[in-house]
């Protein structure tokens, strides 16, 4: 059974608006084991709209049209569907009542353009719109169920949930019970994992689809099955990934590095602080973005200037003069200073040259020292990651969190992605 | 001349990823006065991909394919284009050199799946990818210029800018010389500005297209003209916007709030520090994301726990007990403490309840105190902005920066968007 989407609106063609509706529709369908087969997006072009409706309805069993139900002249969906399917367009009394009530409740003068929202194809059925002025509607044409939905995201969401999904599943009952296992990883590349599977797991079961979603800085691995009975195979693949790259798996679903670190700290009843120079507060921001972070995060210092390193973290001015702000002794002193000031159990400290300026021959842009650990047990690594400023900051903040995560969980502290950038 | 887009990828069909690439492509084409006629999106389905390429290429002069250039098995674009256009698929030496160099620079072992990115249709020309491993490529088929671009947004953006736009305009020269004036604003809504124009500027020249791009937290205003001779009109509209909403205009092009604040501080030879509780380092991170921020930003404190407020900012424990951490006196003390410790001229301080937990009857979730100013001259406002945690943090960090910006520039300190959330 093929479902297609037809999205209409000049604003989504011009790029002024990013289309988030089709993703919402796809996710809601996915939750009922329906997939979107194909999606077409066009502007407010009547002839093209008619042509697409005719073409798509002959090539699929369900067509969801989104947008173009509003009161303005460039809202063409009802007229286009009527023309495409050879129906007259008439006032539907129930729709007229809905739109007039809607305007009355808001004390807005009811205009002719508003009345337009009740002018619908003669033989269509209405779909309630609990929040908006324009009702949805559907009809059958060339064996295709055509459903027209509003472009306003909040209205669309409720209409999908409360009407459209039922409409589709009544018409096309569905035996599948898909389930996707999502794993968040850090330090792995798509091609690396794919290679690993091809090389070490040639008999990977075809029932388990391995998918990737590259984020910055994380990579999501997905194990998707279509039938509940394949869950055992899904688990096998998961176990195998655990063996092969387990130390790079942060957690399931949407788990972030910061969340993984905070969860582990809470389990171990430990607390964390940080002292940031080149990341300028980004690590603290990543941590405090997580609800409930205060249970394990004490606070931190953004010691951007040397003056701050001395005043806020008691870093010895001697050290700064002798070794420079970007050096192992200073990062160590930043970590110790933060531990003393905040009273936390663990510290993360980082100092580097984010660029574009500030590099030198012996310390080029991209040079960074990352420290983590407990009082008198601070580990420090020196990396060189010469990337654009924000990419450098995001990646190094992630590396710092990951090193602490590995320390807390007793995992390998020199994974390949670290070895790659390490400077002896 | 019709341009069509073909987007491919299971992740954008499943709804896991919202497609922002097509909006970016449309905007860049728009900047050269080209419009997108139609857009088709499909999953990683080889046969369908071949069918779409054949169909679209007979119905348009330019086809931009986005996605499917990567190293994994579900990256099918090169093979599909070769099949659709009846070409062999062969290793392109230049592409192979590009991808091997890319892996070498990153010290990643070069794998067979990586090599796949050099297997391209025999007669295609390469397009340089300055940042990614997969080159772009193009060829002609059925009188249609077919251009294949990478799905990674940052790679796509540069390839469009540096190669694809030129490729199209050389092939299809266009007499228009559009120019768009982009203004970054904070605190304005799209409909507010549109109504202002309708009401106070009924004779807005039709030659100047007013566009919007809602960002979080900024709103971009665009004044687009199609002919150089209309620049005077464009300037008139700009002047008018300056009169009406000038204090909400941060700067031109991509100027961020943090950048605007830092630029003004540098001009006034002043420096800044911050003391953050509920934003947890986000303000500092926004500031230090700007290259050269160290010239005006001294550093800051993330005083998440009360202990940190006392130890790092010398906030009196009495104050904390008497008024609570989320209170005017404490925010004032945080600002003063940060000024003393960092030696900066100006401070920003913020303390609030980001939620979802931690609210009370007299201080519900969303309550926040924002302070800014110089020693002994700290202004504090109390707002209530009950939104999801990250939205709350982003918006309140932006408000804090904007209040300082307004102070530094001597602008109105109670704009309407602040009045809306202010709590007496």
UniProtKB/TrEMBL annotation, chains A, B:
InterPro entries: CinA, CinA-like_C, CinA_C, Competence-induced_CinA, MoaB/Mog-like_dom_sf, MoaB/Mog_dom. Belongs to the CinA family. Gene3D superfamilies: CinA-like, MoaB/Mog-like domain. Residues 4-171 form the MoaB/Mog domain. This is CinA-like protein. Transmembrane segments: none annotated. HAMAP family: CinA_B (MF_00226_B).
């Amino acid at each position: 059974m093929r479902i297609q989407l037809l999205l209409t609106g000049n604003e989504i063609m011009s790029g002024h608006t990013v289309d988030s509706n089709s993703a919402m529709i796809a996710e809601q369908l996915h939750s009922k084991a329906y997939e979107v087969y194909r999606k077409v997006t066009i502007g407010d072009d009547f002839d093209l709209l008619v042509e697409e409706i005719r073409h798509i309805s002959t090539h699929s069993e369900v067509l969801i049209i989104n947008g173009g139900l509003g009161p303005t002249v460039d809202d063409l969906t009802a007229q286009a569907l009527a023309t495409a399917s050879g129906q007259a367009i008439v006032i539907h009394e129930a729709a007229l009542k809905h739109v007039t009530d809607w305007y009355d409740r808001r004390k807005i003068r009811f205009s002719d353009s508003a009345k337009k929202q009740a002018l619908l194809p003669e033989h269509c059925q209405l779909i309630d719109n609990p929040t908006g002025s324009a009702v949805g509607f559907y009809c059958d044409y060339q064996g295709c169920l055509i459903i027209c939905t509003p472009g306003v995201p909040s209205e669309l969401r409720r209409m999908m949930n409360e009407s459209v999904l039922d409409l589709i599943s009544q018409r096309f009952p569905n035996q599948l019970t898909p389930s996707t296992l999502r794993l968040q990883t850090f330090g792995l590349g798509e091609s690396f994992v794919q290679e690993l599977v091809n090389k070490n797991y040639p008999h990977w079961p075809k029932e388990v689809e391995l998918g990737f979603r590259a984020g910055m800085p994380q990579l999501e691995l997905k194990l998707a099955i279509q039938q509940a009975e394949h869950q055992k195979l899904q688990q096998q693949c998961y176990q195998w990934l655990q063996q092969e790259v387990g130390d790079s798996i942060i957690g399931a679903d949407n788990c972030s590095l910061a969340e993984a670190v905070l969860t582990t700290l809470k389990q171990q009843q430990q607390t964390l602080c940080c002292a940031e120079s080149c990341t300028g507060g980004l690590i603290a921001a990543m941590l405090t973005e997580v609800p409930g972070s205060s249970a394990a995060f004490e606070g931190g210092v953004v010691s951007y200037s040397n003056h701050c390193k001395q005043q806020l973290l008691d870093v010895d001015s001697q050290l700064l003069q002798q070794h420079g702000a970007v050096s192992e002794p200073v990062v160590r002193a930043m970590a110790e200073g933060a531990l003393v000031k905040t009273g936390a159990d663990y510290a993360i400290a980082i100092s580097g040259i984010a660029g574009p300026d500030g590099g030198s021959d012996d310390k080029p842009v991209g040079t960074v020292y990352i420290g983590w650990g407990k009082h008198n047990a601070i580990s420090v690594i020196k990396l060189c990651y010469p990337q654009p400023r924000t990419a450098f900051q995001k990646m190094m903040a992630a590396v710092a969190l990951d090193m602490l995560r590995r320390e807390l969980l007793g995992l390998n502290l020199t994974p390949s992605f670290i070895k790659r950038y390490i400077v002896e």
